[in-house]
Amino acid sequence: MTLGLVCDACDTLSPLNATVCPVCNSPLAASGPSAAKPSVRSCPSCHSEVPREHRFCGVCGLRLDAGDARPTWAGTQGARARLILVKGEGQDGIAFPLSEGEHVAGRLEGGLMFPEDPLLSPRHATFFFRENKIYVRDDGSKNGLFIRLRSPKIVAPGSTLLAGEQILRIEACPPEEPPQPDSEGTYYYSSPHRPSRMALVQILVGGELGVVFRARTDLITVGREGNDVNFPEDPFISGRHCQVMALDDGRFQVSDLGSKNGTYEKLSGLSQLFSGDYIFLGQQLFRVELNV
């Protein structure tokens, strides 16, 4: 029997006196002929502990098939763009090179796979090039895609925003109708109507409706405190995060107010991406980088 140390990351057998793996440079733990193989291994990308039977790192998405720790899209030859996975603390994680052809992202399908993300659909979206431009297509996902606003954006009624952890839908208010009495001439006792052209509707887990804010003016501000709509318990929303303004043509202008984490618009159908864009898929945040 050959004695040695087995690397948790790549399963290489090293001499007993070795401290690091000669193949992947991962630290080695003491072992012996009767030592059991560890039930977890260290992800070489983010160093998180991954159950040995799992094919992917649940934190950064690195593929760990058969002890071979390589990114799902490991080949960089011919790559025209990259998707950089942004970690929770804002640091860059694994990079996924994008070349010609389609690159599918989802929970159970495609090269960009995150099997432990419950907010991803089995096949969520597809990235591809067309006429030297990169696009993303929503493949009928349940939760959609969100892209960070770089500047004020004109949007249509029914558009959905992501601010902090809040999903907010912009709705146009119908023209006010004067109250009518019943058949006996009695008016219903209620709060007075105030003219308004828009409302923000909070979408809760499961699709239920939360707070509905009907604007008294043509401007609604959103944030943690001191705004028209406040979410004081949301740790990811800024004091003054974003605003929505009603326009005379029935559309709305959405502006980020210098928030730390940004304001995102939900995409629909096919959308072109640009270098520096940030895009949410499920719980995964990516930054787009184009090779120029």
Description:
The chain is mostly beta strands and 292 residues long. It folds into 3 domains: 1-70, no CATH class; 81-143 and 273-290, Tumour Suppressor Smad4; 146-175 and 194-266, Tumour Suppressor Smad4 (Sandwich). The protein is 0% helix and 37% strand. The strands form 5 sheets. It has a 10-stranded antiparallel beta sheet, with no helix packed on it. A 5-stranded mixed beta sheet has the order 8-7-9-10-22, with no helix packed on it. A 5-stranded mixed beta sheet has the order 12-20-19-17-18, with no helix packed on it. The N and C termini lie far apart (54 Å). The model is unreliable at 31-37 and 66-75 (pLDDT under 50).
Number of domains: 3
CATH class of the largest domain: Mainly Beta
- Largest sheet composition: 10 strands, antiparallel
Can you count the beta strands?
A: 24
CATH level-3 fold name of the largest domain: Tumour Suppressor Smad4
Strand order of the largest sheet: 6-5-24-23-11-21-13-14-15-16
Radius of gyration: 25 Å
Residue-averaged pLDDT:
83
CATH architect. name of the largest domain: Sandwich
Poorly predicted runs are 31-37, 66-75
Helicity, as a percent range? under 10%
Report the portion of residues in β strands.
35-45%
If helices are DSSP runs of H or I spanning 4 or more residues, what is the number of helices? 0
Short description:
It contains no helices and 24 strands.
Which features characterize this protein?
mainly beta, Tumour Suppressor Smad4, ten-stranded antiparallel sheet, 24 strands, elongated
Topology, please?
Elements: E1 5-6, E2 13-14, E3 40-42, E4 49-51, E5 81-86, E6 92-98, E7 103-106, E8 112-113, E9 125-130, E10 133-138, E11 145-148, E12 153-155, E13 160-163, E14 166-172, E15 198-203, E16 209-214, E17 219-223, E18 229-230, E19 240-246, E20 252-256, E21 263-266, E22 270-273, E23 278-281, E24 284-290
